[in-house]
Amino acid sequence: MPRTVAPSSPPSSPSSAAQPVSARVRSAITSPAGDGAERTWRINDFPDMSPQAVAQALSRLAREGEIVRLSKGVYAVKGSAAGRVRVYDARRMAGSRCEVAHPVFPAGLLAFNALTLSRQNTPRPVMSTTGTRAPRECEEAGIRVITRRPTAWRALEAEDAAILEVLRDGAIHSEYEPRDTAQVLVHHVLRKGRLARLLPAVRTEPARVRAMLGALLENSRRARSVVGRATLDEMRASLNPLSRYDFGQLGLLPTAKRWYAKAPVPW
User: Fold this and answer.
1) What contacts 175, CB < 8 A, 6 or more positions away?
2) What is the pLDDT of residues 208-240, one digit of tens each?
3) Residue among 125, 112, 42, 120 at smallest CA distance from 84
4) Burial state string for 5-25 with b = 16 or more CB within 10 A and e = fewer than 16
5) Whole-prediction pTM value?
């Protein structure tokens, strides 16, 4: 008897394949039974799912207005303490009824979250601004705002300022070892176009921040080739050789001593 072959089923479309992931992501974030509304979300919060499918699901939720994008790859539930922060970014306020005279940047744990150095959450987010007073909307949302950041920060993007905030904090909230923390920071610093914005702002930073950034860049072969010896020498010449700076976690870098870091305290 002739063999009969069952017709093959049509291949599933990418959208139907991603639908279960989309539903799981939506449920995890918006479920009233969980803590989704009190934290930030990233692709790596769903390690058992396809990163591309999770990215599409997060992007879809943002388009639908369920969540808001705080920075690249970082989201929060709209209306939550962290999610309301997104509203106050002055560079994206065109056409909005809410107008802010000065940009607002992630600080504290939010800065570490933005750079993927930490997955911790805080009940009271911290932001920073170049203004002299915190926006009233931020205060009403329970957000602590650090004021009077240098005016040079007005040219920065959110992740640019997050790098400076992490350095100001000595990278103390990083969940990585010092060497890995340095690699993550250098990766963010060397993103396309960032050095052109960051270096002018660094000149207005405290000497400790300039020293820490210099040690970071000099410790990386790739960064040394991108930045150039002349720029590193200029940054080091701006420091007082008699001073010693607290580098926090980055005090263990091989280049820290050359950039006048205090000797790290042994555990």
Assistant:
1) 117, 118, 119, 120
2) 999 999 999 999 999 999 999 999 999 999 999
3) 125
4) eeeeeeeeeeeeebeebbebb
5) 0.65
